Amino acid sequence: MSESVNWAEVGPLAQSAVETWHRGLADDRRDRARLRRAQGVDDVFEIDAYHRLRFGLARAGAGSWAAGNPTILGRVALAVAAIDADTGVSGDGACPTLGAALAGLSKARLRLIANTGEIELFLRLLRGAMSMIHRSAPVWDTAETVRRWHHPDGRRTARRLLLINYNDKLVE
What we know:
By secondary structure, the chain is mainly alpha-helical. The chain folds into two domains: about 1-80, no CATH class; about 95-170, no CATH class. About 65% of the residues lie in helices and about 0% in strands. The chain has ten helices and two strands; from the N terminus they run αααααβαααβαα. A two-stranded parallel ribbon has the order 1-2. Helix 1 packs antiparallel against helix 4, helix 4 crosses helix 5 and helix 9 (about 140-150) runs antiparallel to helix 10 (about 150-170). The protein is globular. The mean pLDDT is about 90.
C-alpha cells in the first residue's frame, strides 16, 4: 500500500537536502568525478556520495521525494553532480529555472532535450548540455526536472516549464 505524500511539506525538505548534498560535493572531488564519469544509473550505486544523498533525504524527512526509488534518485545524483555553480540562489527573490539556464543552447538542442521521452537519453543530453552552459544551473530545479521526467504527467509539466522558461530568458 502506498503512502500519500504531502508535497508542500516534503518539497522544501528535499530541496534543502539536495542543495546541501550538492555543496558537499565541492569538497568530495573524488566522488563528484566518479558521478560525472558514470555511464548510467547502475554505476551510481557504488558511489558513497549517492548514499549520502539518500540518507540525507531520509534524515531530513524527505525520503519519499523520489518515491523511495533508488533509480530515480540515482539519476538525480548524476544530473546534479554535473553542476558546479548553483544559480538557484538569487538575492532578488526570483526563482531561477533550468530552462533559463539552458538559454545558452540552440533552440534545436533544447528541443532535442525537451522532446525526448526516454529517461536515459534525456539524462545523457542534459548532462552533456551542462558543459555547454559552463556547468552553471539551478540545482533544485534540475533535480525536480529529472524527478518529474520519470512520470508522463510530470514529464509534460517539466517539458512545458523548460520551453517556457527558455524562451522567456531569450526575450528578456
